[in-house]
Amino acid sequence: MEKDNLEKIIIVDYGSQVTQLIARKVREIGVYSEIINFNQAKSLKKNKYIKGIILSGGPLTITKSKSLDLPQNILNLNKPILGICYGHQILAKKLGGKIKKSKTREFGYAKIKSNFKSPLTKNFFLNKKNSVWMSHQDIVYKIPKGFKKIASTQNSKFAIISNELKKYYGVQFHPEVTHTKNGKTIIKNFVRHICKTKKMWNLKKQKDLIISEIKNRVKDQRVICALSGGVDSTVVAFLIKKAIGKKLQCVFINNGLLRKKEENEVLKNFKRNFKSNLKYIDASRIFLTKLKNITDPEAKRKIIGKLFIKLFEKKAKKFKFLAQGTLYPDVIESKSVTGSPSSKIKSHHNVGGLPKKMKLSLIEPLKKLFKDEVRKLGKSLGIPKGILHRHPFPGPGLAIRIPGKITKYKINILKEADFIFIDELKKSNLYKKIWQAYVALLPLKTVGVMGDSRTYEYTCMLRAVISEDGMTADFFNFEKSFIQKVSNRITNSVKGINRVVYDVTSKPPSTIELE
Length: 515
Known about the structure:
Elements: E1 8-13, H1 19-28, E2 32-37, H2 38-41, E3 50-55, H3 72-76, E4 81-84, H4 86-94, E5 98-114, E6 129-142, E7 148-152, E8 160-163, E9 168-171, H5 183-194, H6 203-218, E10 223-226, H7 231-244, E11 248-254, H8 262-273, E12 278-282, H9 284-290, H10 297-315, E13 321-323, H11 328-334, E14 361-363, H12 371-380, H13 385-388, H14 408-427, E15 436-450, E16 453-466, E17 474-475, H15 480-493, E18 497-502
Parallel strand pairs: 1-2, 1-3, 3-4, 4-9, 10-11, 10-13, 11-12, 13-14, 16-18
Antiparallel strand pairs: 5-6, 5-7, 7-8, 8-9, 15-16, 16-17
Helix pairs in contact: 6-7, 7-12, 14-15
């Protein structure tokens, strides 16, 4: 069944960093979703398969002149509409409501109280209260005619509004993020009950669609696949192998910035689980030479991205396509995937870090998916759990875990410290409970005392977060005894480190990686 013949929810992207989470939540419910930008929304036409519209949040403010409007043709579709954050405000304004800059900006958790019942909030509240995630500086202070107040917070009188006759709804908070308790219920109520959709989207359809798209694009051409040994590139390789068989060539490039013993582990796993050609290239000396004295994180990412492509093009003269395991979080942090005004956070080596001109055409089958979706896809392809549950590892590798200049000495120190941290997580049965964990080597030396002698060595930082999708994350709350154990082992075993710190910052406001 083609996706054009599926019931769908259209998401108008106003530039939020978490727009894709809305799409992901809709798909989890079993309904297909598509994201379009503001310009595409202006030309959206009636379609019997469109069952509802969701308006996303965004970085702009309604009270400034450069805010985006709600296209009239969206209202002309006569479909249920749910506005989230900026979408809530723009819906209210378009229909005659009033918006103003809030005296108190809401960012983070807020307590919301139910005022009236609504189909949108069925089973959402517990004792008429809940905890939601806010991120806004404008508020709706007068609702349009025909709307009523459903719920409020201390700073947002109209935190949820509804027009049951038109089936128009607005929520000031973000139900799509995990921080909003029971937030998926809001989306499910809208998608399944208000829009009256059927469960027609599942993992098998998703897998079949990706394989079909690869076949249609590649035809009889050959594909070279950038294999790192992680979840994403492995799933890509399996998908392409199913699509084109022996016309796939995998290449594993060692950039010298891998974790301890990683190259051996990747080669062993590949031979054991994947019956296909694999070329191994040790390019560590080339990468480290190019990165010498480079301190700017964006420059590091771009150098690594361009060098990867250069090496692949050198080895792929008979190939037309390069496949890589780009995920949506990579895309959304590097640029606006839909052309909407989302804020660029950082370039990923496989997105913003790529050269503008390339001889190879990119194939990125996973670029609209999140890590947890990729793992489910990998499981359906028969990929071993040991590979599927590996923590994410960035393409630039240890380069973005060493702020400042990169040297062979620093890399070796970091490899040892990181190996100890991960080893202790596995010994304590904590590895699978954590989304991502690593050690970073900070550009900071401090005085220490070892064996009654003065030391002046580096500080390393432990980072461990829990997350569902990598778009938002909280730090993992370790027992003090575990942190002590890791700290003692690192300072006693790794020459060059005399201080260990633990990062207790969530995302946002930070990112998971340092650079």
